[in-house]
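Notes from the 1:1 (GR / supervisor)

We went over the backlog. Supervisor wanted to see one worked example end to end before approving the batch request, so GR pasted a single chain during the call. The sequence is below; no edits were made to it. Supervisor asked that the structure be written out right there so they could see what the output format looks like.
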Amino acid sequence: MSPYPADALAHALPWAAGAVVFVLVVTFAASRIAGKHSVIDTAWGVMFVAIAVAVFATSAGQGDDVRRALLLVLPTVWGLRLAQHIARRTIGKPEDPRYAELLAKAKGRPGWYALRVVYLTQGGLAFVIAAPILVGGFERGPVRVIGAIGVALWVLGVWFEAVGDAQLERFRNDPSRAGNIMNTGLWRYTRHPNYFGDACVWWGIYLIAAERWPGVLTLPAPVLMTLLLTKGSGARILERHMAGRPGWADYVARTSGFVPRPPRRL
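Structure output shown during the call:
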Protein backbone atom coordinates (compact mmCIF):
# COMPACT_ATOMS: atom_id res chain seq x y z
CA MET A 1 0.00 0.00 0.00
CA SER A 2 1.26 3.49 -0.84
CA PRO A 3 2.38 5.66 2.09
CA TYR A 4 0.01 8.23 3.48
CA PRO A 5 0.09 11.43 1.35
CA ALA A 6 0.88 13.88 4.14
CA ASP A 7 1.88 16.54 1.64
CA ALA A 8 -1.56 16.38 0.00
CA LEU A 9 -3.21 16.76 3.42
CA ALA A 10 -1.02 19.78 4.15
CA HIS A 11 -2.14 21.29 0.86
CA ALA A 12 -5.80 20.68 1.74
CA LEU A 13 -5.74 22.20 5.23
CA PRO A 14 -5.75 25.86 4.07
CA TRP A 15 -8.68 25.12 1.76
CA ALA A 16 -10.65 23.53 4.58
CA ALA A 17 -9.80 26.40 6.93
CA GLY A 18 -10.80 28.89 4.24
CA ALA A 19 -14.13 27.12 3.83
CA VAL A 20 -14.80 27.49 7.55
CA VAL A 21 -13.81 31.16 7.49
CA PHE A 22 -16.15 31.77 4.55
CA VAL A 23 -19.09 30.24 6.47
CA LEU A 24 -18.22 32.32 9.54
CA VAL A 25 -18.00 35.58 7.56
CA VAL A 26 -21.38 34.95 5.91
CA THR A 27 -22.89 34.00 9.26
CA PHE A 28 -21.49 37.08 10.99
CA ALA A 29 -22.96 39.27 8.24
CA ALA A 30 -26.30 37.50 8.65
CA SER A 31 -26.14 38.11 12.41
CA ARG A 32 -25.82 41.85 11.82
CA ILE A 33 -28.95 41.77 9.66
CA ALA A 34 -30.91 39.52 12.04
CA GLY A 35 -29.78 41.47 15.12
CA LYS A 36 -28.78 38.33 17.02
CA HIS A 37 -25.72 36.10 17.24
CA SER A 38 -27.62 32.85 17.77
CA VAL A 39 -27.54 32.38 13.98
CA ILE A 40 -24.14 30.77 14.60
CA ASP A 41 -26.03 27.72 15.89
CA THR A 42 -27.46 27.19 12.41
CA ALA A 43 -23.99 27.56 10.90
CA TRP A 44 -22.48 24.91 13.20
CA GLY A 45 -23.51 22.02 10.97
CA VAL A 46 -22.77 23.99 7.80
CA MET A 47 -19.11 24.39 8.81
CA PHE A 48 -18.65 20.63 8.75
CA VAL A 49 -20.34 20.45 5.35
CA ALA A 50 -17.87 23.05 4.07
CA ILE A 51 -14.90 21.09 5.44
CA ALA A 52 -16.20 17.83 3.95
CA VAL A 53 -16.62 19.42 0.52
CA ALA A 54 -13.12 20.95 0.67
CA VAL A 55 -11.56 17.61 1.64
CA PHE A 56 -13.44 15.71 -1.07
CA ALA A 57 -12.31 18.19 -3.71
CA THR A 58 -8.65 18.27 -2.67
CA SER A 59 -8.29 14.51 -2.03
CA ALA A 60 -9.22 13.45 -5.58
CA GLY A 61 -6.70 10.88 -6.79
CA GLN A 62 -5.23 10.52 -3.28
CA GLY A 63 -7.58 8.73 -0.88
CA ASP A 64 -9.80 5.66 -1.30
CA ASP A 65 -12.87 6.73 -3.29
CA VAL A 66 -15.38 4.89 -1.07
CA ARG A 67 -14.00 6.47 2.11
CA ARG A 68 -13.83 9.86 0.43
CA ALA A 69 -17.49 9.55 -0.57
CA LEU A 70 -18.53 8.48 2.93
CA LEU A 71 -16.64 11.36 4.52
CA LEU A 72 -18.42 13.73 2.15
CA VAL A 73 -21.96 12.35 2.33
CA LEU A 74 -22.24 11.49 6.04
CA PRO A 75 -21.13 14.89 7.44
CA THR A 76 -23.17 16.69 4.76
CA VAL A 77 -26.41 14.86 5.54
CA TRP A 78 -25.87 15.33 9.27
CA GLY A 79 -24.88 19.00 8.96
CA LEU A 80 -27.69 20.06 6.64
CA ARG A 81 -30.35 18.26 8.69
CA LEU A 82 -29.09 19.93 11.86
CA ALA A 83 -28.88 23.36 10.20
CA GLN A 84 -32.42 23.28 8.86
CA HIS A 85 -33.77 22.00 12.17
CA ILE A 86 -32.13 24.78 14.18
CA ALA A 87 -33.05 27.43 11.61
CA ARG A 88 -36.72 26.40 11.65
CA ARG A 89 -36.77 26.31 15.44
CA THR A 90 -35.13 29.71 15.98
CA ILE A 91 -36.37 31.84 13.09
CA GLY A 92 -38.31 34.83 14.38
CA LYS A 93 -37.13 34.20 17.96
CA PRO A 94 -35.13 36.71 20.05
CA GLU A 95 -31.47 36.34 20.95
CA ASP A 96 -30.52 33.12 22.75
CA PRO A 97 -30.02 33.87 26.48
CA ARG A 98 -26.63 32.11 26.36
CA TYR A 99 -25.25 34.65 23.91
CA ALA A 100 -26.98 37.56 25.61
CA GLU A 101 -25.31 36.59 28.88
CA LEU A 102 -21.94 36.13 27.22
CA LEU A 103 -22.03 39.41 25.32
CA ALA A 104 -23.07 41.29 28.44
CA LYS A 105 -19.42 40.93 29.46
CA ALA A 106 -18.22 42.86 26.41
CA LYS A 107 -16.87 46.33 27.06
CA GLY A 108 -17.69 48.32 23.95
CA ARG A 109 -17.97 46.98 20.39
CA PRO A 110 -19.91 43.81 21.31
CA GLY A 111 -20.02 42.75 17.67
CA TRP A 112 -16.26 42.35 17.45
CA TYR A 113 -16.20 40.69 20.86
CA ALA A 114 -18.75 38.17 19.57
CA LEU A 115 -16.70 37.61 16.41
CA ARG A 116 -13.70 36.66 18.51
CA VAL A 117 -15.32 34.78 21.38
CA VAL A 118 -18.28 33.13 19.65
CA TYR A 119 -17.55 32.80 15.94
CA LEU A 120 -13.81 32.12 15.89
CA THR A 121 -14.10 29.78 18.88
CA GLN A 122 -16.79 27.70 17.21
CA GLY A 123 -14.87 27.72 13.94
CA GLY A 124 -11.77 26.42 15.72
CA LEU A 125 -13.74 23.72 17.48
CA ALA A 126 -15.33 22.62 14.20
CA PHE A 127 -11.92 22.37 12.55
CA VAL A 128 -10.55 20.19 15.38
CA ILE A 129 -13.64 17.96 15.55
CA ALA A 130 -13.48 17.48 11.77
CA ALA A 131 -10.02 15.89 12.07
CA PRO A 132 -11.32 12.41 11.05
CA ILE A 133 -12.71 13.94 7.85
CA LEU A 134 -9.49 15.82 7.12
CA VAL A 135 -7.21 12.86 7.75
CA GLY A 136 -9.51 10.08 6.56
CA GLY A 137 -10.13 11.67 3.19
CA PHE A 138 -6.54 10.93 2.15
CA GLU A 139 -6.29 7.35 3.47
CA ARG A 140 -5.66 4.84 0.71
CA GLY A 141 -6.81 1.50 2.19
CA PRO A 142 -10.31 0.18 1.42
CA VAL A 143 -13.26 0.48 3.79
CA ARG A 144 -13.88 -2.80 5.58
CA VAL A 145 -15.45 -4.04 8.82
CA ILE A 146 -14.51 -1.18 11.16
CA GLY A 147 -15.59 1.38 8.59
CA ALA A 148 -18.89 -0.45 8.12
CA ILE A 149 -19.44 -0.38 11.89
CA GLY A 150 -18.78 3.35 11.75
CA VAL A 151 -21.45 3.81 9.08
CA ALA A 152 -23.94 1.78 11.17
CA LEU A 153 -23.15 3.90 14.25
CA TRP A 154 -23.65 7.05 12.17
CA VAL A 155 -27.07 5.78 11.02
CA LEU A 156 -28.04 5.06 14.64
CA GLY A 157 -26.90 8.54 15.67
CA VAL A 158 -28.80 10.38 12.94
CA TRP A 159 -31.90 8.35 13.76
CA PHE A 160 -31.68 9.27 17.46
CA GLU A 161 -31.14 12.93 16.61
CA ALA A 162 -33.90 13.22 14.04
CA VAL A 163 -36.50 11.23 15.98
CA GLY A 164 -35.64 12.91 19.28
CA ASP A 165 -35.87 16.38 17.71
CA ALA A 166 -39.19 15.57 16.03
CA GLN A 167 -40.69 14.19 19.24
CA LEU A 168 -39.60 17.25 21.22
CA GLU A 169 -40.95 19.62 18.56
CA ARG A 170 -44.38 17.95 18.62
CA PHE A 171 -44.35 18.11 22.42
CA ARG A 172 -43.51 21.83 22.45
CA ASN A 173 -46.19 22.61 19.88
CA ASP A 174 -48.92 20.97 21.99
CA PRO A 175 -50.49 23.70 24.21
CA SER A 176 -51.90 21.08 26.59
CA ARG A 177 -48.35 20.09 27.57
CA ALA A 178 -47.09 23.57 28.37
CA GLY A 179 -44.88 23.50 31.47
CA ASN A 180 -44.61 19.70 31.49
CA ILE A 181 -41.45 17.63 31.20
CA MET A 182 -40.87 15.67 28.00
CA ASN A 183 -40.62 12.05 29.20
CA THR A 184 -42.06 9.95 26.38
CA GLY A 185 -40.62 8.36 23.25
CA LEU A 186 -36.83 8.36 23.19
CA TRP A 187 -36.90 10.92 26.00
CA ARG A 188 -38.10 8.15 28.31
CA TYR A 189 -34.75 6.36 27.94
CA THR A 190 -32.34 9.30 27.92
CA ARG A 191 -32.70 12.95 28.85
CA HIS A 192 -30.77 13.91 25.72
CA PRO A 193 -31.46 11.57 22.77
CA ASN A 194 -30.41 14.26 20.30
CA TYR A 195 -27.05 14.79 22.03
CA PHE A 196 -26.51 11.03 22.33
CA GLY A 197 -27.22 10.73 18.61
CA ASP A 198 -24.79 13.56 17.88
CA ALA A 199 -22.05 11.70 19.75
CA CYS A 200 -22.80 8.48 17.84
CA VAL A 201 -22.51 10.37 14.54
CA TRP A 202 -19.01 11.57 15.33
CA TRP A 203 -17.79 8.30 16.80
CA GLY A 204 -19.07 6.65 13.60
CA ILE A 205 -17.17 9.11 11.41
CA TYR A 206 -14.09 8.53 13.56
CA LEU A 207 -14.28 4.75 13.02
CA ILE A 208 -14.39 5.27 9.25
CA ALA A 209 -11.11 7.19 9.48
CA ALA A 210 -9.57 5.09 12.27
CA GLU A 211 -9.72 1.91 10.16
CA ARG A 212 -6.51 3.09 8.46
CA TRP A 213 -3.39 4.86 9.62
CA PRO A 214 -3.10 7.65 10.67
CA GLY A 215 -6.85 8.10 11.22
CA VAL A 216 -6.63 6.38 14.59
CA LEU A 217 -4.71 9.44 15.85
CA THR A 218 -7.82 11.62 15.43
CA LEU A 219 -9.35 10.08 18.58
CA PRO A 220 -9.38 13.46 20.42
CA ALA A 221 -11.99 14.71 17.91
CA PRO A 222 -14.94 12.50 18.99
CA VAL A 223 -13.80 12.74 22.60
CA LEU A 224 -13.95 16.55 22.40
CA MET A 225 -17.39 16.45 20.75
CA THR A 226 -18.71 14.11 23.44
CA LEU A 227 -17.35 16.37 26.19
CA LEU A 228 -18.95 19.43 24.58
CA LEU A 229 -22.28 17.62 24.43
CA THR A 230 -22.19 16.32 28.00
CA LYS A 231 -20.08 18.81 29.96
CA GLY A 232 -19.88 21.91 27.77
CA SER A 233 -22.58 23.95 26.06
CA GLY A 234 -24.92 20.99 25.55
CA ALA A 235 -26.57 18.95 28.30
CA ARG A 236 -25.08 20.84 31.25
CA ILE A 237 -26.51 24.23 30.28
CA LEU A 238 -29.86 22.79 29.25
CA GLU A 239 -30.26 20.92 32.53
CA ARG A 240 -29.34 24.01 34.52
CA HIS A 241 -32.14 25.81 32.67
CA MET A 242 -34.64 22.99 33.33
CA ALA A 243 -33.74 22.42 36.99
CA GLY A 244 -36.54 24.55 38.46
CA ARG A 245 -39.43 22.97 36.57
CA PRO A 246 -41.97 20.81 38.43
CA GLY A 247 -41.23 17.11 38.00
CA TRP A 248 -37.70 17.65 36.78
CA ALA A 249 -36.03 16.06 39.83
CA ASP A 250 -38.10 12.90 39.47
CA TYR A 251 -37.37 12.77 35.75
CA VAL A 252 -33.63 13.04 36.44
CA ALA A 253 -33.83 10.29 39.07
CA ARG A 254 -35.59 7.94 36.64
CA THR A 255 -33.89 8.70 33.35
CA SER A 256 -30.34 8.21 32.08
CA GLY A 257 -28.43 11.42 31.51
CA PHE A 258 -26.94 10.33 28.20
CA VAL A 259 -26.67 6.68 27.11
CA PRO A 260 -30.21 5.25 26.67
CA ARG A 261 -31.42 2.64 29.16
CA PRO A 262 -34.76 1.59 30.66
CA PRO A 263 -36.00 4.11 33.26
CA ARG A 264 -35.31 3.37 36.90
CA ARG A 265 -38.12 2.43 39.28
CA LEU A 266 -38.40 4.99 42.04
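Supervisor's comment: The chain is about 70% helix and 0% strand.
Batch request approved.
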